[in-house]
Amino acid sequence: MSHDSSPSPPDRRPLIAFAWLWVGAPLCYGLYELVQKATQLFSG
């Protein structure tokens, strides 16, 4: 028998989503800029 009287841990999904956005947004922007510069470099 399990008596779940302990409080459940806080839901950290919003924090994890915010952390992914905090890292992912600049990363995507950097990759976008890299692709633009690379196409300019190799297209002449």
Q: Helix share of residues?
A: over 70%
Instruction: From the alpha carbons, calculate the radius of gyration and give it in angstroms.
Output: 21 Å
Q: Quaternary arrangement of the chains shown?
A: single chain
> Helix count?
1
**Number of E-state strands:** 0
Question: How far apart are the first and last residues' alpha carbons, in Å?
Answer: 72 Å
| Strand percent estimate | under 5%
- Mean pLDDT comes to 90
Largest sheet: number of strands, sense, barrel closure: none
Structural class: mainly alpha
Layout of helices and strands:
Elements: H1 13-43
Describe the protein's architecture and organization.
- With 44 residues, the chain is mainly α.
- The model has no long low-confidence stretch (mean pLDDT 90).
